[in-house]
Design brief:
GO terms for molecular function: ATP binding; CCA tRNA nucleotidyltransferase activity; metal ion binding; RNA binding. This protein is α+β, with helices and mostly antiparallel strands and about 375 residues long. It is about 50% helix and about 10% strand. It is elongated and about 85 Å long.
């Protein structure tokens, strides 16, 4: 029985990147032997085990053969006779198909080191076309490694385009598409994810609601990368691309339904496209108060503050002539100083209390707007 460190840990080590997780492949072992050594089996479709002390994953060497549509449409063969080269051959990219032995020896049968040096994302074998999820995975790797100069090999992009043309994206479940999309939003240059998918024709199939001009990258793609330089929260990045796309709310709603976007992501985008799409201007306190009410700012302050963070980034990017985010933040802070308890103690109740609260809020807003208007240039 031999064990090897494989995949991303080897790749990231060679790129001098932080190793996030360590996966291993085991050659020449059976499930019974693994359990006898204290490993706990967790894989259902193929034998994957957790190390009794480290908790790291150890998978028995296996081969896969396409037998039907979908991610479960594979015949998996895990056997002590499967060697390391066969196991590595089933992987997606050459840079993910390297292994390191216990003595430190690098095993690289498919040229992963060569492609690391060339900054190239290259498929391992023609079997790449058997799994349509690899289209999204390659795009995600491109977004992660773009700062290091990586790009998709023309031959691999051609295979991806072929898979799209054959309709293979239809095999993917909503959950698998969203999982890759969410991971892409966490990458240093998330816009590259969409650029690669557009280059192979997948963008139009996956989310045609996001417009893509014939010649230039869309504004939302450029803003997404600009936003990623300063903002690490994936949900703000998600809402940001929709804010910059400026589509009608029903377009986002269609995508959110199709891919079952979690509420914590969709809700902020809905706010940015709906009541938040027209920030107030001018000096009418009622307009500013109405905006706070329409955006549910006072009942959901955390969400509203996230929206203000996003709005500030958008105004900076678009060089807005009359930015509202900073003033809205000040208005929001001052409105929250209005105490309903103090008004109750003054004898107000019922409908009259509600009116007094609104009146007090308008007054503090008017003070903020007056200060803003009279600030020296």
């Amino acid at each position: 029985m031999q064990t090897y460190l494989v995949g991303g840990a080897v790749r990231d080590e060679l790129l001098s990147l932080p190793v996030r997780e360590r996966d291993h492949v085991v050659i020449g072992a059976t499930p019974e032997q693994m359990r006898a050594h204290g490993f706990r089996q967790v894989g259902r479709d193929f034998p994957v085990f957790l190390h009794p002390r480290t908790g790291e994953e150890y998978a028995l060497a296996r081969t896969e053969r396409k037998s039907g549509p979908g991610h479960r449409g594979f015949v998996v063969h895990a056997d002590p006779d499967v060697d390391l080269e066969e196991d590595l051959r089933r992987r997606d990219l050459t840079i993910n198909a390297m292994a390191r032995a216990a003595d430190g020896t690098l095993i690289d049968p498919y040229g992963g080191q060569r492609d690391l040096a060339a900054r190239r994302l290259q498929h391992v074998s023609p079997a790449f076309v058997e799994d349509p999820l690899r289209i999204l995975r390659v795009a995600r790797f491109a977004s992660r490694l773009a700062p290091l100069g990586f790009s998709v090999a023309p031959e691999t992009l051609a295979l991806m385009r072929q898979m799209v043309e054959q309709g293979m994206l239809a095999e993917l479940t909503a959950e698998r598409v969203w999982r890759e999309w969410e991971k892409a939003l966490e990458q240093p240059v998330p816009g590259v994810f969409f650029t690669v998918l557009h280059a192979c024709g997948a963008h139009q199939m996956l989310w045609p609601e996001l417009p893509w001009p014939d010649r230039d990258p869309p504004v939302w793609r450029t803003f997404l990368d600009d936003l990623a330089l300063r903002e690490s929260r994936p949900r703000l990045r998600y809402a940001g691309l929709w804010l910059a796309a400026a589509v009608v709310p029903t377009a986002h709603a269609a995508v959110a339904r199709r891919y079952r976007i979690p509420v914590r992501f969709a809700d902020l985008a809905n706010l940015a496209l709906g009541p938040g799409a027209s920030p107030p201007a001018g000096t009418d306190a009622e307009t500013w108060l109405g905006f706070l009410e329409d955006t549910d700012a006072l009942r959901r302050p955390a969400r509203f503050l996230e929206f203000l963070d996003l709005l500030a980034e958008w105004e900076h990017f678009s060089q807005a002539r009359s930015p509202s985010a900073a003033c809205l933040r000040r208005v929001f802070q001052q409105v929250n100083t209005v105490s309903s308890d103090a008004l109750r103690q003054a004898g107000h109740s019922g409908w009259a209390l509600g009116q007094e609260i609104r009146n007090a809020r308008r007054r503090v807003i008017q003070d903020v707007l007056w200060e803003r208007q009279n600030q020296p240039d």
